[in-house]
Design a protein that fits this description.
The chain is of the alpha+beta class. 33% of the residues lie in helices and 19% in strands. Among the domains are: 116 residues, 2-Layer Sandwich (Uridine Diphospho-n-acetylenolpyruvylglucosamine Reductase, domain 3), CATH 3.30.465.10; 109 residues, Alpha-Beta Plaits; 87 residues, 2-Layer Sandwich (Alpha-Beta Plaits), CATH 3.30.70. The strands form 3 sheets. The chain has a 7-stranded antiparallel β-sheet, sandwiched between helices. A 5-stranded antiparallel β-sheet has the order 5-6-9-7-8. Pfam families: FAD-oxidase_C, FAD_binding_4. One of its GO terms (biological process) is respiratory electron transport chain. Keywords: FAD, Flavoprotein, Oxidoreductase.
């Protein structure tokens, strides 16, 4: 268990915040020093819980004076160790900055503090007849600040885009302790560089998000869900094309039979009796009878081509939610096996060729490992979870996965893809950043870091190392 924080460090922080909001006990250090990544041992020096922008600024200025490293912490649902504090850093938890500050019905916008839970924001919008569309399985514990800091994607990107597309204003505290008020909720603002977008996806390395104004939209109308069984990997993108041609898709998700097996083992009912190597989940608006006709036409066409061997469509909202569990419960069902995760992306047009190549690669390089595939394949995003054999120690397992990563990422680079589609870089993806960003571009990233965080105190060591 982590040792208590040094008394002098705690005393300095308690001159800024009340004693109850500066923690150095072993349990809090262990719980708040990590995210969902399980290959790093948390070792923060302290955890602090600010409740205002002024307190965040005071903490940053204190960190500058005392040369303290600060790691931002939200819902800690990340999968790239972006919120891990393993080197004696001070964790800045935003869980108590969790207020919804303002709602504007005319602008269809809401202003929130960073600690607002994603699902709570979705419910707040729903109560007002509106919709916040960024959505994923961790909605019940992830926080808006973390969503913005990693430019979270999720299950509805195919229609609504990523978090970046819904942020109309940000307030951030930089590594200098300055407060920046960026874009102020404007739709049009042609006044030079839009710094807002630098902080979206920056993983807390340039500044801490302390307030966000988010756009809302009209809710989807009566979404229907289909789960389809596919006989072969090359049918996935063919089925996608058939449905996208006929329908406005809200989601198009993919998972293999190994993933389904782990979810069914948790008691989720099977969608149908047929088992197949691969499955897709399709969601679309069912506002009119013509929508269902189009869905059935796509199903019949795909079936006639041999791309589908079975399928089911939701007949109620309850059934739709049950079908979604087949996809959304995958991550939780795999957690006991300590999976090594890859979250990669290629352009949708490149997906068929890329999938074929890595299918052969994994069959060759992972003959004795269980490899589980799933993802938001309609936007080119694939999640790969390699499950640790029970008789392997973690270090040997990670080393073997890293060896195969070189082959995977070389293939990905040839296809112009990204080593991190939606989970950020953090510590996990840092060694592989060069497969997506070249050396010149990384030098520019370091230069930006030096401008906004000249003392190197904000989430140091994440994304890239100092030059």
């Amino acid at each position: 268990m982590t040792q208590p924080a040094p008394a002098d460090l705690l005393a300095g922080l308690r001159r800024l915040l009340p004693e109850a909001r500066v923690r150095g006990d072993a349990d809090t250090l262990a719980s708040h020093g990590k995210d969902w990544t399980r290959f790093y041992t948390p070792a923060p020096a302290a955890v602090v819980f600010p409740v205002s922008i002024d307190e965040v600024q005071a903490l940053v200025r204190h960190a500058i004076a005392e040369r303290l490293a600060l790691v931002p912490s939200g819902g800690r649902t990340g999968l790239s160790a972006g919120a891990v504090a393993a080197q004696g850093e001070v964790v800045v938890s935003f869980e108590r900055m969790n207020r919804i500050l303002d709602f504007d019905a005319v602008d269809r916008s809401v202003t929130v503090e960073p600690g607002v839970i994603t699902e709570n924001l979705q419910g707040y919008a729903r109560e007002r007849g509106l919709f916040y569309p960024v959505d994923f399985a961790a909605r019940g514990s992830s926080q808006i600040g973390g969503n913005i800091a990693t430019n979270a994607g999720g299950i509805k990107v195919i229609r609504y885009g990523l978090t970046r597309d819904w942020v109309s204003g940000l307030k951030v505290v930089t590594g200098r302790g300055d407060l920046l008020d960026l874009n102020r909720g404007l739709i049009k603002n042609a006044t030079g560089y839009d710094l807002r977008h630098l902080f979206i996806g920056s993983e807390g390395t340039l500044g801490f998000i302390v307030e966000a104004t988010l756009r809302l939209t009209t809710p989807p109308r009566e979404p229907a869900v289909m789960v389809l069984a596919l006989p072969a990997l090359d049918a996935v993108m063919a089925v996608f094309a058939a449905f996208r041609e006929r329908l406005q898709l809200t989601a198009f998700e993919f998972f293999d039979d190994r993933a389904l097996g782990h979810v069914l083992a948790r008691g989720v009912p099977a969608p149908f009796a047929t088992r197949a190597p691969y499955y897709v989940l399709v969601e679309f608006d069912h506002a009119h009878a013509e929508d269902m006709d189009a869905a059935l036409a796509a199903f019949e066409h795909a079936g006639a081509q041999g791309w589908i061997v079975d399928g089911v469509i939701s007949a109620s909202e309850t059934q739709a939610k049950t079908l979604w569990r087949l996809r959304e419960d995958i991550t939780e069902s795999l957690a006991p096996r300590q999976p090594y995760k890859n979250d990669i992306a290629v352009r949708v047009s490149r997906a068929p060729a890329f999938l074929a190549e890595i299918d052969a690669l994994f069959a060759r390089e992972y003959p004795s490992f269980e490899v589980v595939w799933f993802g938001h394949i309609g936007d080119g995003n694939l999640h790969i979870s390699v499950l640790k054999p029970v008789d392997w120690d973690a270090a040997t397992f990670v080393a073997e996965c890293a060896r195969v990563n070189v082959l995977l990422f070389e293939t990905l680079r040839r296809h112009g893809g990204s080593v991190s589609a939606e989970h950020g870089v953090g510590l996990v993806k840092k060694p592989w950043l060069g497969y997506t960003r070249d050396a010149v571009e990384i030098d520019y990233l370091r230069a930006l870091k030096a401008v906004f965080d000249p003392h190197g105190i904000l989430n140091p060591g994440k994304i890239f190392d100092p030059a």
